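#lab-general

N.A. 3:47 PM
ok so I finally got the sequence cleaned up, no stray characters, all 58 residues accounted for. can someone with queue access submit it? mine expired

B.Y. 3:52 PM
send it over

N.A. 3:53 PM
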Amino acid sequence: MQTNSHTLVGTAGGTFLSIIPNIQSADILKTIVLASLGAVVSFTISLVLKSIIKKHKK
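B.Y. 4:20 PM
back already:
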């Protein structure tokens, strides 16, 4: 089955434009805060694990 790139782009664009009005600013802010928190926690855990592994190898 061949897909037409114009159809794919049109479908993706239509889906995106239909979602935009349903997004509220509070949701965007909550997403930004949770993504930032997740990045900080992930970075901290990776540093802690790296330190533990380094001490364990000695």
